[in-house]
Design a protein that fits this description.
Layout: H1 10-17, H2 21-35, E1 40-50, H3 79-91, E2 96-101, H4 110-123, E3 128-132, H5 138-146, E4 151-153, H6 160-166, H7 172-185, E5 188-190, E6 193-195, H8 201-212, E7 220-225, H9 242-255, E8 260-263, H10 272-280, E9 285-288, H11 300-309, E10 313-314, H12 319-326
Helix pairs in contact: 1-8, 2-9, 3-4, 5-7, 8-9
Bound molecules: S-adenosylmethionine, 6-(5-methyl-2-OXO-imidazolidin-4-yl)-hexanoic acid (DTB) and iron/sulfur cluster (SF4).
């Protein structure tokens, strides 16, 4: 049986990432089947509850105030609007609902009180509720946990060494610190990154090692392909080759066998066959709906068709916590 490890070395993981393509996919698919149902894919929905106007300078992000993109700034949504979007997402088959805010960090103010009410409301709908709000302190994480937050997303995005090329307004260690606060509070950790920003394979592998060598692996690892947005410094980046996406997903799957590996941003640029390769390589979750946070995503109908073609079943919510209770 595959063991769960926290001592991955650079040379070893580079060798996995660079191994012959079909062997890599076969190995990842094998590990995937040891830990997951191969026919099950979780369908999640994202909602941008506070859009644009962000003070940070993340080079990929259309929501940074300093870049001139088409994103319209929108203040924090009202709780009832968010809850009706969550209920619609549930009716369309989503079992996890993730609310994103274009904040550098959470502040202890009325907006945070509102987010707490959103979390309580979505939790009461029997969906896994997730937030991505920027940096949080330990007491903010505890408050979110008490409100019923299931998971917190905070991506490392890239390696510690490449990080400064992409973001200057905060440090890689700030990200790690927030993830520690999330972990301590008992909230499920969601952390991954983006490929296609000009990083090397070593950067990709180093990011995965930082995640997989944590004392506990993140329960959820989103792998995003950069969606180049006009007006951002990365607008001219070439499309990520599907081969890279598959290698990244397969390597993440092999290193973190129990995690949900999420085929996240970039699906609009991929054919059905390309997405199928990603599922084969161990991806077992997608974001559904016309929009991610601000950029386009394949529609629900298209995804349902693909699920039918591949005989995939949507995964029900809280499966991980059930496994914990049984174990
Ligand atoms: N402001 C919070 C933060 O930075 O943690 C939460 C929202 S932020 C938009 C969430 C994640 O979206 C980022 O960490 C990044 O991985 C991803 N993201 C943003 N823009 C993207 C793009 N153009 N292409 C791919 N992923 C992107
Ligand atoms: C993640 O890793 N990808 C999602 C979710 N976590 C929050 C966000 C992707 C955002 C893509 C750019 C946009 O739509 O604004
Ligand atoms: Fe702000 Fe998050 Fe976008 Fe960075 S990724 S600019 S922190 S919204």
């Amino acid at each position: 049986m595959t063991e769960i490890r926290n001592n991955w070395s650079l040379a070893e993981v580079e060798a996995i990432y660079n191994s012959p393509f079909l062997d890599l996919v076969y190995r990842a698919a094998t590990v995937h089947r040891q830990f997951h149902d191969g026919q099950e894919v979780q369908v999640c929905t994202l909602l941008s509850v506070k859009t644009g106007g962000c003070p940070e300078d993340c080079a990929y992000c259309p929501q940074a105030a300093r870049y001139h993109t088409d994103v319209k700034v929108h203040k924090l949504m009202e709780v009832d609007e968010v809850l009706s979007a969550a209920s619609e997402a549930k009716s369309k088959g989503s079992t996890r609902f993730c609310m994103g805010a274009a904040w550098r960090e959470v502040r202890d103010n009325r907006d945070f009180d509102k987010v707490i009410d959103m979390v309580k409301g979505v939790n009461a709908m029997d969906m896994e509720v997730c937030c991505t709000l920027g940096m949080i302190t330990d007491s903010q994480a505890e408050r979110l946990k008490e409100a019923g937050l299931y998971a917190y997303n905070h991506n490392l995005d890239t390696s510690d060494t490449f990080y400064n090329e992409i973001i200057s307004t905060r440090q890689f260690d700030d990200r790690i610190h927030t993830l520690e606060n999330v972990r301590k509070s008992g909230i499920s950790v969601c952390s991954g990154g983006i490929i296609g920003m000009g990083e090397t394979v070593t950067d990709r592998v180093k990011m995965l090692i930082t995640l997989a060598n944590m004392p506990g692996h993140p329960e959820s690892v989103p792998v995003n392909a950069l969606v180049p947005v006009e007006g951002t410094p990365l607008e001219k980046q070439p499309k990520v080759p599907v081969w890279d996406m598959v290698r990244m997903i397969a390597t993440a799957r092999i290193m973190m066998p129990k995690a949900m590996v999420r085929l996240s941003a970039g699906r609009v640029m991929m054919s059905d066959e390309e997405q199928t390769l990603c599922f084969m390589a161990g991806a077992n979750s997608i974001f559904s709906g016309e929009r991610l946070l601000t950029t386009p995503n394949p529609g629900v109908d298209h995804d349902q068709q693909l699920f039918q073609t591949l005989n995939l079943r949507p995964r029900k919510s809280f499966k991980d916590s059930e496994a914990l209770v049984v174990a």
